[in-house]
Amino acid sequence: MEAVKEALQEGRPVAYFPYGEGALLLVERRRSLEAFPLGQGRRLPSLAAEFPSLDWFERALWERGLELVGHPGLRPLRRHDLPYAFREFPHLHEVPVGPVHAGIIEPGHFRFSVLGERILNLEIRLGYQHRGLLGIMPGKGPEAALLLAERAGGEPVAHALAFAEAWERALGIEAPPRAQYLRRAALELERAFGHLGHLAGLFTDIGYAYGATQVGRIRALLQGEVDRLTGHRYGRNFIRAGGVWREGRPDLEALSRYQKELDWLLPRLLKHPQVLDRMRYVGVVRRVEALALGFVGPTARASGVERDLRQDDALYPAFVPVVRQGGDVLSRAQVYAEEALQALEYALRFLHQRAEGPLAVEVEAGDGEGMARVEAGRGEVFWFVRLEEGRVVQAEGVDPSFKNWRALELAVRGEGLPDFPLCNKSFDLSYAGNDL
Amino acid sequence: MSLLRTLRIGVLARALEEILQVPSQAFGYPLLQPKGLSREAREGLVKVCPSGAFFEEEGIFSLDLARCVGCGRCALVYPEAVGEMKTLEVAVVRREDLVQRVDLAAQAFLDPGPPPPPRPELRLPTLAFREVSAGDTGLADSEIALLGNPFNDMARFGFQVVASPRHGDALLVTGPVSRNMAQALERTYQAMPEPKGVVAVGNEAIAGGVFAESPEVWAGVDRVVPVDVYVPGDPPRPGAILHGLLLLTGRVVQRLVGGVVR
Q1: Chain B residues with CB inside 8 Å of A135's CB?
Q2: Residue A325: beta bridge partners?
Q3: Lower CB density within 10 Å: C or N end of chain B?
């Protein structure tokens, strides 16, 4: 127990799922992963009171039938058949929003407690997107299971990559070098595509039509290149266990043209007085909060946490993460802009230097356990699989959004109610990824 | 400076015919070849499809477009049995029109008869729609949102998104309808004034897609609210969704009958 606490004090939880008689807690400390089997007979000691980063993980475990001894406030996360009570503030006005929102986005419920127009508390209730994805995984072969993994969150390439790597590690095989390059190229294009979407959304939300249109235009063109590389507008049906399915021919010249244009455009857009006025000092997540609650991806990096899983990837030698200290909406926008440019550069590099050789190795049926992590646009995607005779016995996935949703609750405290859409967009979290 | 750049970029909006095309490098929708369906090919197709879109029962071999994820492996492995439909004019008003059924004895497609006409009260010059995501991963939502970008520019055709269901003529639904969203979807539908149309966008919305077997979903929008137009795809490209909206407003005729362009 002391070892777990020590690890959590310096690190952050990566995943926590039922395993054997109890559960397995994975903690990242000083860039390396440590595993702690906890509990017995489906009873687990709760650590959420001491380590808030574990709160949602423990609630998710409790919902799945495990007993959490000593949890400070167990409430369902994804299941709506269990009773749920919102925190009450007798003297404040309550503004309920959702699950159906005004824009074209996924469903979720937001309960604002406001004094005048100022948000004093936000409570987020999700679970509307719960499709029981992990429950229908057992029994699936590699292809059917990958179809589900691709639908786990808003970033199909990252999820497919993490899932395929977990599968390969379970069987002790490795994808050929050519596939490695193509997979990373698709991952980087997905990142650039996603980040440009966040930026276009932010510009729309502050009424900066020029920025939104220009970024949206290049994003649409970039999506055409994702389509050319993977055969799908979002990169589905591309990655397989053991390699990739196909090798498309994206237009490399066009890609470098988009990169150049963005290189010129994005810094100028982010210096526009209207942008600075609306984004600076709004929706601040402090570094201590990011560390204590275990935020990942651009959310953490915009708050000064220097961590990107690509630092550990041999295909990214001397990788330097994009970090900002401000923690506000502008910092996140700057991280998105710079990472989009960096991602396009890496995509071009991978497509130029892709090795010769086969696209995939054959995957035999086998037994084993494997896990993998991938830095998606929104942060760390985690997948674990346990296989028997080439079929899934247990699969566990964690989307980065699951770890980041509470950043939004913190960011909007003290902000005006009309700033909520802007703050929400600056994280652009996946609802489906959280609800699975 | 901005004006010069704008002039240099020029007009981005693409013609409708161009939007309704599948780009050359991508796989469109599969099309059964009645003459090439040998026993070996049929058994192979059922095995090769990762999403289980092929079925065989009582001398009839069928392909459900609403279960196809569009990977194109069937056409690669069995080119004599499966071809490709390179069109995005795939929206239909009747669910059966998404299923290709081949009578193996006659080696020919079964014809389910002419489709019902679109509802006359929805023949509108403009259409305001509300979107509800009910368990979608976010990609079908994203494709609907991209209908508004400068390339597709759906406002040209009179389509616009509205924030409230009370201002909507149509409801676009994505996702397999998770149990937790069913009530919200039903109430959104009830909040809309008559006449109202419903479009199920994407395979998951039509029949649950890969989530069909999950106990946490209804596996189909039409199990919760009545559906007027089905748009297959995983997710459907913006062109296919645009075709669905045009079909709902009676401005184009349905092309797919019994899963085949006729």
Answers
A1: 214-216
A2: none
A3: N
* List of chain A residues whose C-beta atoms are within 8 Å of the C-beta of residue B145: 103-104
* Whether residues B146 and B253 fall in one domain: yes
Mutate to test the interface with A, among B29, B216, B245 (most CBs of A within 10 A): B216
ipTM above 0.85, yes or no: yes
CB atoms within 10 A of CB B112: 14
**CA–CA–CA angle B250, B206, A145 (5° rounding):** 145
- Kindly state the average pLDDT of the residues A424-434: 91
Shared domain for A148 and A277, answered yes or no, is: yes
Residues B69, B150 within the same domain? no
- A228 close contact with B: CB closer than 8 A: yes
Which residues numbered 55-114 in B keep a CB inside 8 Å of some CB on A?
69-73
Distance of CA B229 to the CA centre of its chain: 8
pLDDT tens across A55-102, in order?
999 999 999 888 888 888 888 989 998 888 888 899 999 999 989 988
**Distance of alpha carbon A123 from alpha carbon A121, whole angstroms:** 7
Closest chain B residue by Cα to residue A249: B25
Of residues B25, B132, B144, nearest to A100 (C-beta): B132
Cβ neighbours for B31, distance < 8 A, ≥ 6 positions apart: B82, B83, B84, B85, B100, B260
DSSP-based three-state secondary structure for B45: helix
Partner A contacted by B216 (CB < 8 A)? yes
The pLDDT of residue A344 is 94
What pLDDT, on a 0 to 100 scale, did the predictor assign at position B72? 87
Residues whose CB is less than 8 angstroms from the CB of residue A280 and which lie 6 or more positions away in sequence, other chains included: A326, A328, A329, A330
Test mutation, B180, B186, B224, B241, chain A, max A CBs within 10 A: B180
Q: Could you tell me the residue range of the domain that residue A153 belongs to?
A: 140-426
pLDDT tens readout for residues B53-74:
998 888 889 999 999 998 888 9
**What's the pTM value of the predicted model, to 2 decimals?**
0.94
Chain A, chain B: beta-carbon pairs less than 8 Å apart: 143
With residue A169 as reference, give the H or E element that holds it.
helix A156-171
- Interval A331-365: pLDDT, tens: 999 999 999 999 999 999 999 887 888 888 888 88
| B191 and B132 within one domain | yes
Domain assignment of residue B42, yes or no: yes
Spatial contact of B46 and B56, defined as CB atoms under 8 Å apart: yes
Q: Which of A100, A245, A260 to mutate: most B Cβ within 10 Å?
A: A100
Query: With an 8 Å Cβ cutoff, is B9 touching chain A?
Result: yes
